[in-house]
Amino acid sequence: MTKYKFCLISIVLSMGFLCSCSSDDNDTTPGNPVMEPKIEFTNAFFGDSLSFTIGVNDNVPLSILTANLYFGEEKVSGTVIRTKTTGDYSGKIFIPYYKDVPDGVATLEFILTDTHLTSIKKTYDLPVSRPAFPYLILVTADASYPMLPTGTPHEYAATEAFPSTDLPAYIKTPLSGINGNEITFGWEEGEITQGATGDIPFTSSKAGRYSVTFNTKNYQATPFFELTLNGQKMGMMDKENFQIDMDLTQGQELTVEGIGNIDEWWIDSDFFNKISENIFTFVPISGKYRIMANTVFQYFSVEVLSGNSPATLQSDGTGAIWVIGTDVGKSSVAGNEVGWNTDKGLCMAPIGGKKYQLTLVGGLTVSTESINFKFFHQKGWGGEFTTELTTTSDVVFVGTGGDSGRDPGNLGIVSGKTLEEGGTYVFTVDVSGGISNAVLTVVKK
Prior knowledge:
By secondary structure, the protein is mainly beta. The protein has 4 domains: 2-129, Immunoglobulin-like, CATH 2.60.40.2550; 136-222, no CATH class; 225-310, Sandwich (Immunoglobulin-like); 317-445, Immunoglobulin-like. 2% of the residues lie in helices and 46% in strands. The protein has 2 helices and 38 strands. A hairpin with a 4-residue loop joins strand 21 (235-236) and strand 22. It is elongated, with a radius of gyration of 32 Å. The N and C termini lie far apart (71 Å). 30% of the residues are buried.
């Protein structure tokens, strides 16, 4: 059996706290703490609350019995019991339930400390193992289903005629033994996490009767909708959104697999050039990008990255420019308008030469009668283009405040003009002359 060090050690208290427990602050009589466990530590399970009873006595007033639980050098649990007088003291300490940790032997370490800072320590070996539950419970909004052992170690399955191919649910365990705790497994930050109850986005490729499986050791589960880009699995953020961070080269081929109706998806021409049904080439300059797939709006959005975060516009004109405001949205303005929600900001495609491009279609991704959006230095509030942005377009103007009809930097449509329904317009922001001398061009293709 693997040997792990689960240590129960004392919390060192300050002299002032310990002395406050003494009836005589000037008493320097040496202490002689004694403790003896009244329970034999034979075995325990991950997820249990381990009960213990310790008999204690001393010739001076006692202070505390402290129990801390360590996995290696890391503290994972702890409890403190006040022990003023001789007697038996009982408590519980939680043994965490961790992913991928094999069965092993824990080390329990108890420390008793009196008011004169004299202490005694005892240690005990304790076999610890992952519990074999008789069943798990799959919990949906409308029903619960038993998940039974499949015969594969730690794996459980519920096989039913579920009401839909989409089955948002979390999983919980029954109580096991007198010290067992209910353990939940739910969706948190794009993965199955112990202790969470967020719905796991189970999705089956077929309707009717199918199986939902879960492994209580490695947290692997099925079924999920799986989407890959050049053979790399996109991370599932929820049942509607997938993403992957990649270093991409301009002109690089990208193959999408896992979308049966990809011919119905809207393809953003600023970032992708379609070669065949599921093969595309990458349009912007080479760099690191985040590609996101939304199965509801059926399109891929792309963001420029700096490290692992959305890029910002740098003083030398490199980085990214973002679009935030009303009357614009991908894959459609009617269904997914950006508005003034910075989380939905659109990243312009860097096309080289410190130029950034946004292609819009009248009536589809941009309103034809009126627009009111602007360009920002980041995906959020902060730096933005105002009076340093100019244009010579005879259709779109840059607001200057006051009688212009738009706040400084906000775009509007020139009075008496409209964008053509179905017309394609390429908005380009050129900062090659410096970010304080930005030029907007609007070209109808």
